[in-house]
Amino acid sequence: MKTTVLIKLLPTSEQRKQLIHESQTFIETVNRTIIQMLQGDIRKTLSSKDIQCPLNSSVKSEIARCAMSVVKKYHKSNDSDYATLRKPYISWNNQNYTLNGNAISCPFWINGKSKKITFKAVITKEQKAVLASHKLGNLRITQKSNKWIAQIAIERTPLESKTTIKIMGVDLGLKVPAVSVDETGNTKFYGNGRENKYMKRKHRSKRQELGRKKKPEAIVKLNNKEQRWMKDKDHKISRQIVNHAIDKDISTIRIEQLANIRETTRTSRKNEKNLHTWSFYRLSQYIEYKAKLSGIKVEYVNPKYTSQHCPNCSKRNKANDRRYFCSCGFKSHRDIVGAMNIISAPVVSDKRKSA
């Protein structure tokens, strides 16, 4: 399973200039090569010898690989527009860079010669341990918010599945992003639904304002900003869920199969827009891959009536907002009831991506 380690670089002013120059040259050459390939001016299989630009051969090889990958995706999608990359970056394969303590060295093209530049880097103990114990892949350096970030791909091997048999149910929602309950009754809430809805309303209002001013590029930037915020929240929630499962020695996490949730769920008018823009599938995928790396199995269950069946007597009741009451005397939070029922709900194999 491939993941990425993000490392902050501390380049000098001269090193910044070199990074800016070579990353712009890299992306311009990739885009030019893509257009030439699509127009049939050059062959479909490339090597560093086919790339003409003032960069060293190791970087040229990455340009060829990147251009071939984009063209392959273009032909699969049958898009009428040429596929081009916008954000400048520069990349090397794992044989052309070295890690040494808090420094990363990689080759650049300087005055007609290939010369290695060593960048100071902020590498934590945890990152050093991960990098030392896994196979390293490509290095990519890119600029984010005036900071230079090194992205190192690694191949991580999932841990062996746990021998214990302890199940934890996880209920996903809007007002409460996630609730977990295990078989012993340990309950935990994750995320802040009010904050999520506020941020979505805020971005929606700004988009409407930008639309009235006819600023489509600003709308795209705002959309990207909102998506980054949402992904960050999903990553944090999924990490908290998996860490809690590790602490409680859970062997299996069960999640609702939320296919077609937008078509089947009845919700209030104020929550309808949030329901149609929130990615439950992405959060469940983040939980799944983080759990697998920790040796925890993830299963998907049928969500039918999980929030209505009483865990005590199995009678169906509709919750009053978040409060759930049953005639047998059982009462609890609606999402806790859902997580409890998920533990014993029928497991399904199909986890379609429509949510």
Label this structure with key terms.
7-stranded antiparallel sheet, 355 residues, alpha+beta, 6-stranded mixed sheet, 2 domains, elongated
Explained architecture:
With 355 residues, this protein is an alpha+beta fold. The chain folds into two domains: 2-155, no CATH class; 167-348, Nucleotidyltransferase, domain 5. Helices cover 41% and strands 24% of the residues. It has helices at residues 13-38, 57-77, 125-133, 193-212, 216-247, 261-264, 269-277, 280-293, 334-344, and strands at 2-10, 89-92, 98-99, 103-110, 113-122, 135-144, 147-155, 167-172, 178-182, 187-190, 252-256, 297-301, 323-325, 331-333, 347-348. A seven-stranded antiparallel β-sheet has the order 2-6-7-1-5-4-3. A six-stranded mixed β-sheet has the order 10-9-8-11-12-15. A two-stranded antiparallel ribbon has the order 13-14. Helix 1 (13-38) packs across helix 2, helix 4 runs antiparallel to helix 5 and helix 5 (216-247) crosses helix 8 (280-293). The longest helix is centred in the middle third of the chain and has 32 residues, at 216-247. The radius of gyration is 25 Å and the shape is elongated.
